[in-house]
Amino acid sequence: MNHRALPAGVLLAALLAPVTGAAEGRHVLWTVAGESNTVYLLGSLHVLRPQDGSLPSVADAAYADAEQLVMEIDMDDALADPAGLVQAMQAEAMLPEGQSLRQVLGEDYTRVSERARSAGFDLSLLDRFAPWFVAVTLMQLELENRGFSAELGVEQTLTRRAVADRKPITGLETAAQQFAVFGRLSLPQQKRMLLMTLEETAQLDAEVDKLLAAWRSGDIESLAKTLSEEYERFPELYGPLTENRNRAWVAQLVDLLDDDDDYLVVVGALHLVGRNSVIDLLEQRGYDVVQQ
Known about the structure:
This protein is an alpha/beta fold. The protein is 53% helix and 10% strand. It has a six-stranded mixed β-sheet with strand order 4-3-5-2-1-6, sandwiched between helices. Strand 1 and strand 2 (38-44) form a beta hairpin. Helix 1 (8-15) packs across helix 10 (187-202), helix 4 (82-93) packs parallel to helix 9 (175-183) and helix 7 packs parallel to helix 10 (187-202).
């Protein structure tokens, strides 16, 4: 999703860029053959730097072959209605009446405020917002300070291309559904998530290099290891943030495999690796899923 709060390295991975492909030719792109069509699964993350380059040629070829584009949410609708997106976010990101971020964070407020100030924003301006939203804001600003931009990311790049080509775009879920996942987390869980993000920003440069190297090489083992390590630290998030959504998506992908059109499905790369990933769940249903 475009504004997500995940623990530590998972939050970082969720906001970073897609794999550009390695010398040995592995990519975070898979194909699944239906009865009369092909579904391509592209592991995307959401921001890129100018120096990170363009999509790999296999992704361009998948886009060209696909009659329809499917993303986590319908990006052309989301970009066309930014006010609606903000309204959906605010419905889940605002703290209950009478509560403040300072109260929720307690003695940890000072160090979160200091980190926010170093990233370039005043934490007091978000005093009515829930900790999950602060975690997302903090990580996004830290990445922007390093040159990453959503405008250069896979979703917006492919959305612009599809709109120009008049290629249909659909979503696996709505922005409101995504935000609701976080709104249902307890405030102590959200606080813990924010504090873990604080740790991550303290070592961000090294983590960025490691994750980008894994993406560029299509190293799904390293990505799965990152996912596993983070959810060992925060296991209660694996279900609502990843596994439950994967299962809901797979049910829709199975329907696409009965269609005649070819589809390019673009979801966060960490949804395609590890236990009960989209790939794993499709294979459990008997599909042959081939990494490109």
